[in-house]
Design goal:
This protein is mostly helical. The chain has 19 helices and no strands.
């Protein structure tokens, strides 16, 4: 699977260009995670849901999270079996398809389908890029590029709401997703043009036997059917008024039942063509999926999907577990038990044996706790700011930006620090710093938010601390996993962090609201506005304290990753050692 990479300045320039393009794709996907925050009400109106039915919009958020988390291990495994570059290109195409479907949606099922596809494509970019770093840089030089990936991912989360606000100022919410399509296609072209360099003979991209004439004809037919299928399906979703209202041409757009644009003659034809393409190409992708362990992938998807839908759909004011949780959690538990059994008995499991062990498992715990601590700040800093008379919604978001901008800076510093310090020293110190800052935030009052300089210092310290932990956690997981399992190892780190955010949000918010309602019940006058606001401050303080506990626990585990620089025996230590996984 590996061959030496050509040495010299040209090789260094090529890998930096590839890392830059892949990192830009990661930033684009990260921005899309948060861009719907401002556009959510407009998106609801676009599919016929009123603002009074906000609970029905939950699948717009949870659908993206489901796609992002549930299939990440499978994509990570595929990136270990195929070229990382091919996985990046495939994920970008899925992201493009999801963005286009979302932009064209006028009914809820179609919108959720688009969001799921966006989550799958956007989420898959992260582990593939992290594994790419492990391929192109030796262990003791990975810190800085890993820090870059972590930084751009966090920067994307900052820019997402900002870009969404800019687009909404001059156009509708659909323009956001059409811009996604355009940007992703540009990045696809760039990564494609940065294809395999000369000198990678014997790699997965090395010249293959020339296909026979019949195979070339079949490939050409498949390509034509794919283009036509996508065009017809897109036409069905777009339903141009000039065609729909035409007496003759509008007949194929008349729904079989209801008002669905998919259940129309033209929509069904488009879907049938895409199914035919899937059948014709099955011999190519089915073999790869079988090698990736479909049974394990299905069990992981069920376990993670049950967890995500349980907590992402909950109403923290009433419950920790969502309305479907009591049905989903047992299903997820059964899937998890079956996964453990399958992992022990499968010849080639989805998560190769040895990946989740030693420092790898501790890295996952740290990533989980980082997610819980991070979400406490992201959600409750704006909430505390809104409780004051000083900040409106925009002003509250700007208060949070102080923290969000510090996180990518911390990620860069953390990656650079790995040249001299161990993973545990950097991550542990960062989370200790973040934990102390969150303890201070757990004592904040309304006046604390308005005190600009001290509040900014604390938010920056917490952001820097959390950012410091990103690269070391990824580096530890990669260093202690086999070279042919870097994609899976990276995906598990990302999954752990996202699960920490989803579960942490539901759990901490529920505990905070419990204290809020308890404080309200104790009020002599429950109509006293100032007293109610004070109870709200207690809720926020509780969430910050929970985030502090998560960060401090994470620091304790992180220090066990090692305080001195180390080199894994699984990989060459020499910076000049030939290391290159074919791109």
């Amino acid at each position: 699977m590996t061959t030496p990479h050509p040495s010299g300045a040209a090789a260094g320039t090529h890998r930096l260009a590839l890392l830059s393009a892949a990192s830009a794709a990661v930033a684009l996907a990260a921005a899309d995670t948060y861009v719907v925050v401002l556009a959510l009400t407009d998106m609801m109106a676009g599919v016929g849901i009123g603002i009074d039915a906000l609970q029905r919009a939950t699948p717009i958020i949870s659908g993206f999270l489901l796609g992002y988390i549930a299939v990440l291990p499978l994509i990570g495994r595929l990136s270990d079996l195929l070229d990382r570059r091919r996985i990046l290109l495939g994920c970008l195409l899925v992201f493009v398809a999801g963005s286009a479907v979302t932009a064209l949606a006028v009914e809820m099922p179609v919108l959720v389908t688009g969001r799921v596809l966006q989550g799958i494509g956007g989420g898959g970019l992260v582990p593939a890029t992290l594994a790419l770093v492990a391929d192109l840089w030796p262990p003791h030089r990975r810190g800085t590029p890993l820090g870059v990936v972590g930084a751009v991912q966090e920067l994307g989360s900052v820019l997402g709401p900002v870009l969404g606000a800019v687009v909404l100022a001059w156009s509708g919410w659909r323009a956001i997703f059409w811009l996604n399509v355009a940007a992703a296609l540009v990045l696809y072209a760039v990564i494609h043009l940065l294809g395999p360099r000369a000198g990678t003979e014997g790699s997965a991209d090395a010249p293959r036997p020339t296909p026979s004439g019949s195979r070339r004809v079949l490939s050409a037919i498949t390509a034509v059917l794919l283009v036509v299928g996508l065009a017809v399906t897109g036409l069905a979703l777009a339903a141009p008024e000039a065609l729909v209202t035409d007496v003759t041409l509008g007949a194929p757009f008349v729904p079989f039942a209801g008002s669905s644009r998919v259940l129309t003659p033209v929509g069904v034809v488009g879907l049938v063509l895409l199914v035919v393409v899937a059948v014709l190409t099955a011999p190519r992708w089915w073999a790869v999926l079988r090698r990736a362990d479909l049974v394990g992938a299905l069990l992981v998807a069920v376990a993670l999907g049950s967890l995500v839908l349980t907590f992402a759909s909950s109403d923290p004011e009433k419950e920790v577990v969502g309305p479907l949780g009591y049905s989903l959690l047992p299903v997820g538990a059964v899937a998890l038990v079956a996964l453990v059994w399958w992992h022990r008995h499968a010849a080639d499991p989805l998560i190769p044996r040895g990946v989740v062990g030693a420092r790898g498992s501790r890295s996952l715990v740290v990533s989980l706790l980082v997610g819980a601590a991070l979400v406490s700040v992201v959600v409750d800093v704006p909430l505390l700011a809104r409780l004051t008379d000083t900040y409106d919604e925009t002003g509250a978001a700007l208060v949070l930006v102080r923290f969000l901008l510090a996180v990518p800076v911390g990620a860069l510093v953390g990656g650079w620090s790995l040249r001299r310090l161990g993973d545990g020293a950097v991550a542990g110190a960062g989370l200790l710093l973040a934990g102390v800052g969150l303890v201070a935030m757990s004592r904040w009052t309304l006046a604390s938010v308005g005190d600009t300089v001290p509040a900014t210092v604390v938010l920056v310290v917490v952001g820097l601390g959390m950012g410091l932990a990103l690269a070391p956690v990824n580096n530890a997981a990669l260093a202690d996993s086999p070279a042919d399992a870097h994609g899976v190892a990276s995906s598990l780190v990302v999954v752990a962090r996202m699960v920490g955010m989803v579960v942490g949000l539901a759990l901490l918010t529920s505990i905070g609201l419990n204290r809020y309602f308890d404080a309200v019940r104790r009020l002599p006058d429950q109509l006293d506005t100032d007293a109610l606001i004070g109870a709200g401050v207690v809720q926020v303080q509780t969430v910050f304290l929970g985030g502090a506990i998560a960060a401090l626990l994470g620091a304790g585990v992180a220090f066990t990753l090692g305080v001195g620089r180390r080199t894994s025996a699984a990989e060459p230590a020499d910076a000049d050692a030939p290391r290159f996984v074919a791109l």
